[in-house]
Structure prediction request, 175 residues.
Amino acid sequence: MRRRFAFSWAASIALSGCGSCAWFPLLPDKRTPVDRAHELTDLCKEDSPASAPDALSPAIVERVEPAYVHMNAGAGGDLRLRGANLHMRPTVNMPIGVLQRALECHQARVTLGEAKEVDDDPYVLAGSWVDIHVSGTEEGLVAAVLTDSLDDARRIVDRAHKFVTSPRPPPAPPP
Prediction:
């Protein structure tokens, strides 16, 4: 009796309040791209859309590489495509957090119809939400654009290559 009570108490503590947590590993994330965009609305109010053109310029991307994750890390582990790593030129003079926020807010604004999508935009996929993680390296900044869907990951890599190889002026900020 005591063991069953302890288990049920621990389970109820672990699950209470976490039923809607997207990070809880046993529950699938049921949020739509629009739900995720709305979650960023308050943060993006503080972010100026004027910073997006610099962050969204193909000219700042030096190279694109597929982003892989190791699956079954044991012997003979598999690599799985997750998206693309966009390596920014060392001349990018933007703090990691500012670039991260600019790219996430761009995705949110496009998803909510508040901004236009750039041609071959690697930071937005219609009907899907991508995870964007900016990090620093010895060579500069890297924006990892990731998804769990193999088809979406392939689309991201394809769009990122097209985005970088077809120069265009940066988008105008929204009115």
